[in-house]
Amino acid sequence: MKTDFLYVRFGANWPAVRRFFLDVVWPEGAVCRSCGKISDGGVLCPACTARLRDDGALFSWQAEEVEPGLTAYSLRPHQGVARDLVLRLKHQAEACAARTLADLILPLPPDVVFPPDTVVTWVTMPESRRRDRCVDHGRLLAEETARRLGLPCRKLLLRRETRERNQASLNREMRQRNLQNAFSPAETITFPVLLVDDVLTTGTTARRCAEALRSAGAEHVAVLTFTRASGSRAVW
Ligand SMILES: [Zn+2]
């Protein structure tokens, strides 16, 4: 369906307006958020649920050192059903996708341990972008993650409000420049931190956030992303 004219009409509120109409036409849970076919009440249809689970047989809790001392865990490759859920959450304000993604966290593999005093946080969005998207997808993912891990969750990072370019459209070098001094700590940090984000691409965002957390005293920072994109660009 061509919807550009509707975006012009409703502007930044378009994702919420669209969601509202979809809820009237197709009540929540009636349509699979990945393939679009009728589902039997779930966020995904049985076939997509199976696909998401099977993708985890080869790729789940992949650990990667994005810089010395900073490990990022990713739960699925940035493709297929997992990617569809990330995009639904991010661009169409569908919070149910965050719950389905967060369900991938458990069970934790035996070698992945988060100390009980760990605080979960997210990559704070510039306020202007949060308003445009009508959903703070990072925050939703962090809250759902914390709930499943039984850990507290709060905002530990402040975001500079400038005309940053969206990271997804930039290459590695441009990303690094774009996020220079973008984050600052919201408080003194004397506990381990688990930073949650939707997708790991070059790791630049994770490094910048870890830098800000460490400047406030954080000694242990780990990163959890739901998907891992290969290459340095194009995450949609
Ligand atoms: Zn499906």
Give an overview of the whole structure.
Strands 1-2-7-6-3 form a five-stranded mixed beta sheet. Strands 4-5 form a two-stranded antiparallel ribbon. It has 236 residues and is of the alpha/beta class. Strand 1 and strand 2 form a beta hairpin. It has a single domain (55-161, 169-228), classed as 3-Layer(aba) Sandwich (Rossmann fold). Helices cover 39% and strands 17% of the residues. It binds zinc ion.
Can you tell me the residue ranges where pLDDT is under 50 for at least 5 consecutive residues?
232-236
Distance between the termini: 19 Å
How many distinct folded domains?
1
CATH class: Alpha Beta
The best one-word shape is globular
Order of helices and strands: HHHEEHHEHHEHEEHE
Overall mean pLDDT score?
A: 86
What's the Cα radius of gyration? 18 Å
Largest sheet: 5 strands, mixed
Bound molecule kinds, no repeats: zinc ion
Residue share in β-strands: 15-25%
Strands of the largest sheet, in order across it? 1-2-7-6-3
Helical stretch tally: 9
Helix content: 25-40%
CATH architecture: 3-Layer(aba) Sandwich
**How many β-strands, per DSSP?**
7
Which structural class fits the helix and strand makeup?
alpha/beta
- Write down the CATH topology: Rossmann fold
Q: What is the fold's blueprint, element by element?
A:
Blueprint: H1 4-10, H2 14-25, H3 46-58, E1 62-67, E2 70-77, H4 80-92, H5 96-102, E3 119-122, H6 127-133, H7 137-149, E4 157-159, H8 172-178, E5 183-185, E6 193-200, H9 204-215, E7 221-228
Bound molecules: zinc ion.
Zinc ion binds next to α3.
